[in-house]
Amino acid sequence: ALGALALPRAEQISANWKGTSATGASTKNFIGGEFVESKTTEWIDVHDPSTQTVLTRVPQATESEFKDAVDAASQAYKTWSRTSVVTRQKFAIELQHLLRQNADAIANSIVLEQGKTLADAHGDLLRGLQVAETAIGITSTLIGEKLEVSKDMDTEVRKVPLGVCASIAPFNFPAMIPLWTIPMAAVTGNTLILKPSERDPGAAMIIAELCQRAGLPSGVLNVVHGGVPTVNDICDAPAIKAISFVGSDRAGKHIYDRGTQNGKRVQANLGAKNHAILMPDANKNLTINSIVGAAFGAAGQRCMAISVAVIVGDSSAWLPGIIERAKALKVNGGFEQGADLGPLISPGAKDRVIGLINSAEEEGGKILLDGRNIEAPDGYPYGNFVGPTVILGNTSMKCYEIEIFGPVLVVLQADTLDEAIEIINQNKYGNGAAIFTQSGATARRFETEVNVGQIGINVPIPVPLPMFAWSGNKGSVLGDIGFYGKSGINFYTQNKTTTSLWKAEDAIGNRASVVMPTHH
Ligand code: NAD
């Protein structure tokens, strides 16, 4: 999609963030405007999931490096929070331009470290780039409110920044998720500490370098690497006022609990199980393409993947078509021409997905298409590949209850629309759900009665563009304020109200009033 915009050629990234220590390539921290090699003794290897080659290693940042980052962010906050909104807007304008110019470099890094296909990696960036683009509107979206509440008395509401904020990212969208937070936090006047996923930090590092080139002053964005110890440091640091988290339920619950107990504002986007209802009247081609694309794209490693298809009525009308098109998808290394899905992120993730398919078989599910033992693609004997898998199952199976996060579609059958909606509403997650139908009345009922936050009508992955906000619900989120859009502005600001009275000298009486003012 980015290519269609006739972009200038990708510029060469300086790769200041890449280290070369005695034991191989490393990824630096970014603290106070400098890319600095960590002094840690604990490193985490980053693998190419198509080959297992070690690409780089990320440090488990030391306590003192973390403290340096918090100090740099606190120092930078003093001046950044006082810059004019137009200066901050200019940063977003420059950033979106640089992201476009360097799209190829970012996408290549994503394919290498995360494994998704090149076209999909461009989509990953595009969805983040769109957040930077909407952040340009900050000169309008930050406008406050003012009302004359009484004679000569005004109340004014300003949206002011929070301070130092933190963003903790997952592996599956290495560009999009850091970009959900960096532009929004920065244009609202905050400073940020980003902890990318330790499994694919490269895109975040390129973005950090581009932020610097876009004119972001030193210390406004800092990147520290690591696993749980860095996360806990973020939850505990008194200077950090808010945390944005995207990732698994387990980590999100921990971060939400620990962060809020320490008085921080926390927004946490968690796991999902997204259902699509297939009505008998739905357009065949559109529906099958949509289900297969949304179930198996990115090897199912999307929080908005369709992982459950609920067929209302006769499933024999749908299953052969779904299986045929799923079978036709090419599993291959992400850089290969024609690849439809790449590998899973790690051998552990592959084992876990295969284990869940096995459990479905043990529980009486029918494996209609089996991707467990697919032949390794040419040239990739060691990749973490699992092929598209379709399971005819039911709601009491483990493969239905747990988020699989792999290329697996569980198919359920329902007799009526009511039954299908009830299945979705009983599910603990609430990220998204879709319906495929040609009936407006059916779509309307679904939209009204289904309890999830993001609804698709003949649209399989109904993620709102960033002028709207992320709106997953139920077990898919913790916290009240969503990412980006108006919610993003609200998350990164607090309201400050000023009430002022300006009276003419001769209108001021000579007696003090002790009753509550009634604003006549
Ligand atoms: P993850 O929870 O393993 O990792 C996310 C971040 O949390 C990483 O930075 C990691 O270092 C840290 N972390 C991991 N385990 C932790 C722990 N026990 N305690 C504290 N911190 C921990 O998630 P992941 O595997 O990288 O990402 C996949 C998950 O993210 C899926 O569940 C997916 O649905 C979810 N996700 C949700 C959304 C959304 O918007 N709802 C978007 C993308 C991904």
TrEMBL record:
Top-level EC class as recorded in UniProt: oxidoreductase
InterPro entries listed in its UniProt record: Ald_DH/histidinol_DH, Ald_DH_C, Ald_DH_CS_CYS, Ald_DH_N, Aldehyde_DH_dom, MeMal-semiAld_DH
Enzyme Commission number: 1.2.1.27
One cellular-component annotation, GO: mitochondrion
Keywords: NAD, Oxidoreductase
Top-level taxonomic group: Eukaryota
Gene Ontology terms describing biological process: L-valine catabolic process; thymine catabolic process
PROSITE patterns, A to Z: ALDEHYDE_DEHYDR_CYS (PS00070)
Signal peptide (UniProt feature, chain positions): none
Residue span, Aldehyde dehydrogenase domain: 35-497
Alphabetical list of Pfam families matching this protein: Aldedh
Gene Ontology terms, MF aspect: methylmalonate-semialdehyde dehydrogenase (acylating, NAD) activity
NCBIfam families, per the entry: MMSDH (TIGR01722)
Family recorded in the similarity comment: Belongs to the aldehyde dehydrogenase family.
Name under which the protein is recorded: methylmalonate-semialdehyde dehydrogenase (CoA acylating)
Organism: Gymnopilus junonius (Spectacular rustgill mushroom)
